[in-house]
Amino acid sequence: MEVVQEVLKHGSTHSVRAAIRSEQKSYNLVQLIASSLDVHNILRNKNMTQNVTKGSSFKGINGTGFLCGARIGIVAKPSPEFVAGIFGTWLSGGVAVPLALSYPEAELLHVMNDSDISMILSTKEHQDIMENISTKCSAQCSLLPAVTSMPVNIDCQEPSSTEVTLSISSLMAEIDSSKEIRGDDPALILYTSGTTGKPKGVVHTHKGIVSQVEFMPKFSVRGVWQRWRESYPNDGSKNDEAITVFTGVPTMYTRLLQGYDGMDPEQQSASSFAAKQLRLMMCGSSALPSPLMKRWEEVTGHRLLERYGMTEFVMALSNPLHGARKEGTVGKPLPRVEAKIIMEDGTETTSEVGELCIRSPSLFKEYWRKPEVTTESFIDGGFFKTGDTVTVDDEGYFIILGRTNADIMKVGGYKLSALEIESVLLQHETVLECAILGLPDEAYGEIICAIVVPKEDAKKRAELEVKPALTLEALTSWSKDKLAPYKIPTRLYIWDSLPRNAMGKVNKKELKKLLGA
Length: 517
Ligand SMILES: Nc1ncnc2c1ncn2[C@@H]1O[C@H](COP(=O)(O)OP(=O)(O)OP(=O)(O)O)[C@@H](O)[C@H]1O
Fold this sequence. Notes:
Layout: H1 2-14, E1 18-22, E2 25-28, H2 29-45, H3 48-54, E3 71-75, H4 80-91, E4 95-98, H5 105-115, E5 117-122, H6 127-135, E6 140-143, H7 154-157, H8 161-176, E7 186-191, E8 201-205, H9 206-210, H10 221-231, E9 245-248, H11 250-261, H12 265-277, E10 280-283, H13 290-300, E11 305-310, E12 314-318, E13 332-333, E14 338-342, E15 348-349, E16 354-359, E17 366-367, H14 371-376, E18 378-379, E19 383-392, E20 398-403, E21 408-411, E22 414-417, H15 418-425, E23 431-441, E24 445-454, H16 456-465, H17 472-479, E25 491-494, H18 508-516
Parallel strand pairs: 3-4, 3-5, 5-6, 9-10, 10-11, 24-25
Antiparallel strand pairs: 1-2, 7-8, 8-17, 11-12, 12-13, 14-15, 14-16, 16-19, 18-19, 19-20, 21-22, 23-24
Helix pairs in contact: 2-4, 2-8, 10-11, 10-12, 11-13
């Protein structure tokens, strides 16, 4: 209940102000909370209380709220309905499981079966698909009610303060009547990207969520550039609802640059101008290669602020807002986050290479139904072992060398970081994207394999000349003065694209299996 109570507290003071803007409409907290209560009533009227008590198809955990911690799947694009769906679930004592629309059916079913979803709440546009899928995992389905938006001209029809106080207190009365939900109870199960195996359900508590906020819009290259240009037309004016902060994953910035390169000079200039006006641009979720960071700065004037996070604790390390944003690093621990590096022998280091361990107020509670994995993931003192190999520079900025079991290659006695080699190859004029992985080898333990996606113009040239866009010989000779001899790839594949998951990450474990076979 803690999260909802926090929202209600804000609702009492900021209820008439817009809390969310979506597709040119605004929604205030009273509207969101009222809609959450509708969701609460839908859940209540579905006879779920009875099901929980009888222990039938409805599987609850703990004894909190009338849903007793049953899992409710939420299927909606980023919208007020999504937020109301989550709040409604929490008001009812349920655990919300956001289901990504970009997941293929098999992955969606994995998540639904793994988290044992009792009910799916979806918006109308996804109703048919979800009703079909729900039959395959015996979940019930219901529609998320549309949230009423604020009148366009809020000055004319602003609700009176009495109306607002009444709305808030009647909502409070409803909520207080449900069983108590504690800060330590599960609130949300987020699934990891599945970069290194099947996605795991990460359980976050009400208390953990109160310590942070997050929102992620749908991504479209043309849409993003257009939104920035509309925000800041190059006559120097500024739109009232201008975007001021943008955050994305490295693949998004690569795609945005591709989109930029395809524009005519006039549109390029309008786009650069608009992007320059934003206050801040951030990047995270996978390594931001230096060439990409530099090119982005040339085009938009923004030195991307790189951060490091995981589903398990959301954000932990960050370059500073004010101060040096150092390329190739993810900065230092955020306030109230503690980070330490543990070497293979279990000792702590402040300068060597080792595994990053994090302790933070936003740390998750456990992996869903994986008690052994949960136990193995923590060390004494409640520090979480991230599985990432890192080091620190002499100013205390953390450098991510990669996932220990996917990005760290053991080649003839050397431990090499795939991320470091990828960052160098991206400087090659032909290379648009690349992935480096270690393939098993009898003599060396592993050999370095590069998969390269060539840039469009290089691809076209190669097709015309009927030869590969890049050869291993050419890459080797180009790499000689940039990489130590033992870091130069000895196998090269040229592909049209890299298989990426919903977060834009490459599953190297899968690729290794594929190429090893
Ligand atoms: N700025 C960054 N630089 C390099 N790597 C990063 C950065 N930010 C996040 N990461 C990587 O992303 C991981 C966290 O991503 P996420 O929680 O989505 O799980 P995943 O590792 O992609 O998938 P799974 O845990 O299912 O295998 C981190 O452990 C780290 O490897």
